[in-house]
Specification:
Layout (H helix, E strand, L loop, with lengths): L1 H19 L13 E7 L3 H11 L2 H4 L5 E8 L3 H4 L7 E5 L1 H6 L1 H13 L4 E4 L9 H7 L4 E5 L8 H8 L4 E3 L8 H12 L21 H4 L6 E5 L11 H15 L2 E4 L6 H10 L6 E2 L6 H10 L2 E5 L2 H8 L4 E4 L16 E4 L18 H4 L3 H15 L1
Parallel strand pairs: 1-2, 1-4, 2-3, 4-5, 5-6, 7-8, 7-10, 8-9, 10-11, 11-12
């Protein structure tokens, strides 16, 4: 994570410095309300985990006093806009924000132009190139964040970025999962009685029920999701084919291959290893709400630790998660979800994915039988 920060920092610093000198005059809303900006630039799974606390911000910033805008990652925009927790939504392309200085300038000047009264970045693992930069250049009189950790930056960067905030909410040094981190932050803001709960995505908010018909999916079925956000954290895709084969022989559940556009090669390789199975291909062609609909009706999801795991938890889809140790316990698993975990314990768990080995052993050493044991156990429970 840190290498892109080091190489992109000088150019981004120039853009940010220019934005900071632009004039900014406060202009209150006509109805007297103030403007709050919540910055949440994480991946899909992080946003799903944020939903439990996101809805609570209205208690601290009531609608008669505050207009709330959520600034987020464009990859989950079609999902976020279905929730009534904010008045407005703004999104940006993360890679473009770092690689294209013109785009970065436009994004930051738009935030500054909107003249927010307060900006809050709840993320525990902050980044100086993304969320911290938005806070720094926003021009708001009140800037609130978490003391955070060093997962996405060096110590000198954190010491510098900490000065861009008017208030940093203390974060416990104890190991907490992300749901608890979000709750801790809210309590620091003033919602003293708030406790975390697993994410829930209301079924009435799902895409229309024609999704299964549209993609030719017949029940009962199981979702196979072989992709991962980082290749090193991906269980060998060919192994998914053997798991699907065993499960089909046992249950006759139709295997549905899902993933984003970047996962198309992986899904094709899975299907090629088991051509006799009645695969249904949905990889690269579903929206996030459609993916949620598919998961809602699925008997089970089998996947690496990636965003879809949290999507499944939010619609109470039983899950088998193939996990490495980089963030074990921080993002997953958490209480209140119907899941099984396939993993190989190692003394280096909690490395933040700074792996000491040439290949990620905690993923590589998980066998087909290890995963099948969990899949078979969950299938028996479901049946």
């Amino acid at each position: 994570m840190l290498a892109p920060v080091v190489f992109a920092l000088p150019l981004c610093e120039i853009v940010d410095a220019v934005v900071q000198i632009l004039p900014r005059r406060h202009a209150p809303l006509r109805d007297g309300r103030r403007r709050l900006l919540i910055v949440r630039l994480d991946a899909i799974g992080d946003f799903i985990l944020f939903l439990d606390s996101f809805k609570e911000y209205r208690k601290l910033y009531p609608p008669e006093q505050w207009e709330i805008t959520l600034f987020g990652n464009i990859i989950w925009s079609d999902l976020a806009e279905r929730f009534p927790y904010a008045d407005h939504y703004l999104f940006m392309e993360m890679r473009k924000f770092v690689r294209n200085p013109v785009y970065r300038f436009r994004v930051l000047t738009e935030i500054r132009r909107r003249r927010f009264d307060c900006v809050i970045q709840p993320a525990y693992s902050r980044s100086p190139l993304y969320g911290d930069a938005v806070v720094r250049t926003s021009g708001t009189p009140v800037k609130i964040g978490s003391t955070g950790n060093l997962s996405n930056m060096f110590g000198w960067q954190k010491r510098r970025a900490d000065r861009w905030y008017t208030r940093l909410i203390p974060a416990s040094v104890a190991f907490l999962n992300e749901l608890e981190r979000n709750a801790e932050f809210l309590r620091g803001l003033g919602l003293d009685t708030f406790n975390s709960a697993p994410p829930r995505y209301p079924h009435e908010s799902l895409a229309d029920r024609s999704t299964l018909t549209e993609f030719g999916i017949a029940k009962p079925y199981v979702v196979i999701f072989p992709g991962a956000s980082v290749q090193g954290r991906q269980w060998p895709v060919e192994h998914f084919a053997e798991i699907a084969r065993r499960l089909f022989i046992k249950t006759k559940w139709t295997p549905v291959l899902c993933g984003g556009p970047q996962d198309l090669p992986a899904t094709r390789r899975v299907a090629a290893r088991a051509p006799e199975l009645p695969w249904v291909f949905c990889a690269g062609i579903t929206t996030l709400p459609q993916m949620m609909s598919i998961l809602t009706e699925s008997r089970m999801l089998i996947a690496n630790e990636t965003g879809v795991i949290h999507m499944a938890a939010a619609v109470e889809c039983p899950t088998v998660c193939i996990m490495g140790g980089g963030h074990f316990g921080r993002f997953y698993p958490y209480n209140g979800v119907r899941s099984r975990i396939a993993y190989k314990p190692m003394d280096c768990f909690g490395c933040d994915w700074w792996c000491r080995y040439p290949t990620v052993r905690c993923i590589r050493d998980i066998t087909i039988d290890d995963v099948w044991k969990e899949v078979d156990s969950l299938a028996k429970e479901i049946s």
